[in-house]
Design a protein that fits this description.
Two copies of one chain form a homodimer.
Chain A lengths: L11 H5 L35 H14 L13 E4 L13 H13 L12 H6 L2 H6 L1 H13 L4 H14 L15 H12 L3 E9 H12 L6 E13 L2 E12 L5 H9 L6 E4 L5 H8 L6 E6 L20 H5 L6 E4 H4 L9
Parallel strand pairs in A: 1-2, 1-5, 2-3, 5-6, 6-7
Antiparallel strand pairs in A: 3-4
Chain lengths: 347, 347
């Protein structure tokens, strides 16, 4: 299936290892606009405990929306960007897009009897994660290419949608799209109610996210920036289609995130939300612009309700962000302390 | 300035030769929503003469917005894409972005005394268009790289903004941003008033368009798809910036337009507006999707008020589009017959 000479960008591994994912979340109702007269508005952030994190966020939003205030920001410039994996939904024990790849290899195996004896396919079919991981960038890159290319963008969308509707997480038994964070859904709705446009900026593939983010996060496909493959336009049966090529066009991670933002959004956002050092440059880019700025890191501290990890984690590693958050005035949101609830919907 | 080994993508020529541009247009007031009760709404398209082109457009909009109708399209899917050069503003005698490049070379020449004796710079400084054009892809690509790279995205934005505020077209003496088409401003406002999201999809550079399209077209930077350079993230004086590299990332023209749409917008638009064969694939991609579709070609037929050209034109050539428009049910808008006025504002 994969031509020998096919160019697999070295960064393909990163993309895979920085996926995106899916939730049957009931979108929280938009809170009333801050300036609406009448009875006291309902709490727009009911899943956030009182504390410094919550106060920093609401204080920022109040400042930038206060007409005539020193920090007022016109609606057009109220752009907020959100990492996906580990910021809007979980990412353990493996990035959900990698789980999608493994499931897809299994689904495709019936048409590929040769995979039973060929690595890294055999490792996937045997559930041998150790051998799979040892296949490294080359092996996992090949799996990514096999499962994400050749098809059209529309076809891949249907495949992802079907997977998101049925696949379940091994630990929680929830659909992956039911493992999105209720407090972050509230943040997005709160920002939108205050005139912000919310974008996802993820290391995961755009085509893996677009089929479900509108339903789950209320974010339309055109507000998703992510890693992307090269595409080729073709006419099939008289219909124009985009075919995914097995070549990476952008790795939207680390220093690639500001690049993706500049290419697609075209102006510097004023608020950024991340959880790992893969988001460092995005947070830096956003918070070093002129005027009021907001950066927040979701710190995974809750081993009981979710996972606890930061330094040295093979996924979502967070070290530099932890070290520099205070000096850079980034909010470190403590999942265990700050969040009343974790997930958005019952399994 | 230009390192010898610098990779100048072959397609760089195309990008240059497919620019974007600038107008001090007074944005037309949004017409009342079609379903608003009360007195008869003002004509949303006052610059369009009665006729088949106008009827085709209003008929399409009425069908897709009629709730319960067979052709109803939800608001989220009402995406319309517009080419820029020759569709939203003029493109003769040379693409306005090429004019910007030439003006920029002249402005930079004081710091480059060696340019007086070096081609293709000498040709620009001498106003010798024949020699300049003979320098071809290599020469013009070098000018594009020199004038569009090395600077940050923000710096280029300031340079473009200053140019748009002052430069004047040799024939009309208008600012380039005053050479946008009033009938097309009305189409965009009419579509937006009917729930459409309007995007530019241009062969011109995104960074050449974003500084002025919001003011001129009412289209925010994040709704501009265009040819783009590779970018590099850097921290300068503690501030994150994006530096433009002299390497093309996407040539958003011909088959590159559906690619740009799929990468950035992420869903198939339902309406497309173009003027040349550079827009053919975009029109094809948009109008071969399921459900109601609309395609329109602005046909330059008015040598008195604008320019008249189609087949064989060195800029904005239109042959296949002319030949196939009827069979594909694309509207051929005749500038001379269909448009009461051409430009949006007095010079």
């Amino acid at each position: 299936m994969i031509a020998a000479g096919m160019r697999l960008h070295a960064a393909v591994f990163l993309v895979l290892i920085l996926a995106g994912g899916c939730t049957q979340a009931s979108a929280p109702g938009a809170p009333p606009a801050a300036s609406a007269p009448g009875p006291a508005p309902a709490d727009p952030l009911p899943s956030w405990n009182e504390g410094a994190s919550r106060r920093a966020l609401t204080g920022f939003v109040e400042r930038v929306t206060k007409e005539g205030g020193a920090d007022f920001v016109p609606v057009a410039e109220r752009i907020a960007v959100f990492d996906n994996d580990g910021t809007l939904w979980s990412e353990q024990p493996i990035y959900f897009q990698l789980q999608f790849v493994l499931d897809r290899v299994k689904a495709m195996a019936a048409d590929h009897p040769e995979w039973r004896a060929k690595q890294p396919y055999k490792a996937v079919l045997d559930g041998d994660m150790k051998t799979l991981m040892a296949s490294g960038e080359k092996g996992i890159g090949e799996l990514l290419a096999v499962t994400h290319s050749g098809v059209t963008v529309d076809e891949l969308g249907e495949i992802v949608r079907a997977w998101a509707d049925t696949a379940r997480h091994p630990k929680t038994a929830r659909r992956y799209t039911e493992m999105v964070y209720q407090p972050m859904l509230e943040v997005m709705a709160y920002l939108r109610a205050n005139g912000f446009k919310t974008f996802i900026v993820s290391g995961g593939g755009v085509e893996f996210m677009r089929p479900w983010v509108e339903r789950v996060y209320g974010i339309p496909p055109e507000q998703v920036v992510g890693s992307r493959a090269k595409l080729k336009y073709e006419v099939r049966d008289g219909k124009g289609v985009l075919v995914k090529l097995p070549e990476i066009d952008l790795v939207d991670d680390r220093a690639g995130k500001p690049v993706g933002i500049a290419q697609v959004i075209g102006r510097r956002p004023i608020a950024a939300f991340g959880n790992s050092d893969g988001d460092f440059e995005m947070l830096e880019y956003v918070t070093t612009g002129p005027g009021p700025r907001f950066g927040l890191i979701v710190h995974h501290t809750d081993a009981d309700r979710e996972w606890a990890y930061d330094r040295g984690s093979h996924i979502g590693g967070l070290a530099r962000g932890l070290d520099e958050a205070a000096a850079r005035k980034w909010v470190l949101a403590d999942m265990k302390q700050d969040w009343k609830t974790i997930y958005s919907a019952a399994p």
